[in-house]
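[stage:ingest] chain + small molecule (0O2)
[stage:ingest] validated
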Amino acid sequence: PAPPELLQAVDQLKAYSLRYEVAMKLVLDKLDYISREYELRYGYALIDSKQSRIKSPESIVGKLKRKHLPLTLNAVFTNLHDVAGIRLIVRFLSDVKTVEDLLATQADIKVLKVKDYIHHPKPNGYQSLHLILGVPVYTVDGPNIIEVELQIRTIAMNFWASLEHELNYKKNVPDQAALQRSLTKKAQLITELDQEMDDIKQRMYDPNRPPKKL
Ligand code: 0O2
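[stage:predict] done
[stage:export] tokens:
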């Protein structure tokens, strides 16, 4: 029979995956509501698309190793903030802040940490707004705050990030370093495009227009 410590670890893992799933679903439902109400009241699609995932065990182990952390459950809970992750894609730059502000008004979730890679892009050019949200999950033992990472970015930023991610994970790409440098330069074009598209949007939709009354 399996040693009791192992059985306990398996039970703990199951309970925690359930908590991450429930917390992620709660945030997804809120985003869905925000998106639908915004469209009804402003006649404007705030959210283009969203993806979500619970980090796979392989990816968790990979990240713990990269960060030189012990391969323990405790290290996961205390050091990895993106076990539950949502990526929200908006069309326009100013929509990133609109979503952030709408989320900040929700009393039951807390923004625990903000990493603003839009105002402060990473050296490789990566842009995105990362929020670590603390979401209450009411377990049999009482309330527990579970972290969910929310990445908010524009379609253009996502286009850049998805190619950059592919480049990093692909093996045997000739001139990988040169392609990386080229992508870093292209990030500037993404910033310019996002700003110019936002200018057009501001002229199409008056940013101070009142919402439709309910
Ligand atoms: P995957 O495969 O997408 O899940 P921290 O402990 O806060 O210092 P962490 O968790 O690395 O470190 O935080 P950060 O910077 O917020 O990055 C978390 C996630 O953002 C990454 O998860 C990526 O999804 C994305 N990301 C961050 N930097 C880059 C980048 O330079 N390029 C791209 N394409 N994505 C990036 P994972 O676990 O690394 O990967």
